[in-house]
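hi! just following up on the protien thing from before. the input was this:
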Amino acid sequence: MLKKVTIADLMGLGGIPIADVRTPAEFAQGHIPGAFNLPLFSNEERVQVGTTYKQQSREAAILLGFDLAGPKWSGFIRSALALAPDKKIVVHCWRGGMRSGAMAWALDLYGFQVYVVEGGYKRYRRWVLDQFGRDWSLVVLGGMTGSGKTRILHELERKGEQVVDLEDLAQHQGSTYGTLNRLVQPSQEQFENDLAARLLALDRGRRIWVEDESRTIGQRLIPRAFWDRMRSAVLFEVQPPPEARVSSLTETYGMLDRDFLVECTERIRKRLGPEQTKRAVAAIREGRMEDFVRELLVYYDKTYRTGMGDRVDMVAVPVDGVDAVVNSAIVLTATLPEYG
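and the predicted 3d structure came back as:
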């Protein structure tokens, strides 16, 4: 049986596998979190069909599409059965047109309960972008580089607080060294999709913690509407002693590949300055990681203070070290006047 569903309906279905029948390239660019790719056409086949549509006619493109997909129908059904053994499945393409219609027809013929998303992925993307301007009750956790903010954020989540970890969604730690020589960032589109999905899972009636960020996290951009809400939210600034920050950063970056650290340091030469860059690189080469970190903090602390210049609503939270368990409790105590 076939049934058309809106994006709102889709968000309420829960647990039913979503088959994205667009090409692998389209899927890689961005997809509904949790969806699997069941491409009607390969990347090359999609180009062929589109070219035929433009140069000949709609009818010629449809016939070519059937020629290309014809030998693959049994494979589509087997793949769908493997992922949806109870024969309930959601299907979508780019705009809810011929590709999803053809796949839905075949799966329905086989006996699936098929839900077809009206407007397809294009409508979903409109929904995603709409989420960022909603009235989220954000609370921002700030602090200079090395303050242990991310670990505190995770500890707050373990204590039952609602948290959005933007760096985890962006797969980047935020600094020049933020890939840690191993992380691969999602596309901008997928970052936004994942952020919207995370927000959907939260209770809008309760506060949501986010870490203070510049608008860019690596190569990814926090959506403007959401970032504006972050900038206007109350910021609780964790303030550990400088040496605790040095120790924390040395532990984080000290084990990374030295060539990677040198390459990243050279990348910010213009901002660090030639002499400071020279000292930082020498410290890396000689294994003096604490000295390397101290050189960097001169730059990062200055950048942080500049970014804090327009902050109005800020609460200082002095702490003795970077123990996330201890500091998360102190942060929660500090929020009591605001949220108690």
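The mean pLDDT is 94.
Residues 289-307 form the longest helix (19 residues).
cheers
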